[in-house]
Write a structure and sequence with these properties.
This protein is 64% helix and 0% strand. The protein has 86 residues and is an all-alpha fold. It has a domain of 58 residues.
Length: 86
């Protein structure tokens, strides 16, 4: 069995990423778009560090929370959905 060394979580690097990203609760659509751009940039990276993945998880959660509050889908019957599409 081959042992693979796992890099320890670098708190200094994570703090640096946080300082650049300025994550906070999203309250406006403009803030949401800014955070979505950061999420997009991180998702495009082929190889993310553990610190980048942790930041991506945090930013995604912030976006999910904002969108759940502001874009809540109203219940619709299948018939209503089909009629809206025409």
């Amino acid at each position: 069995m081959e042992l693979v060394a796992v890099k320890a979580f670098d708190l200094t690097e994570y703090k640096h990423l946080l300082a650049e990203a300025h994550p906070a609760l999203i309250e406006t659509e403009e803030e949401n778009q800014r955070v979505l751009a950061l999420v997009h940039d991180l998702m495009r990276k082929q190889r993310k560090s553990r610190e980048e993945q942790k930041l991506l998880d945090l930013l995604a959660r912030l976006v999910e929370d904002f969108e759940a509050q502001h874009y809540e889908l109203k219940g619709a019957t299948p018939d209503q959905v089909l009629r809206r599409g025409t």
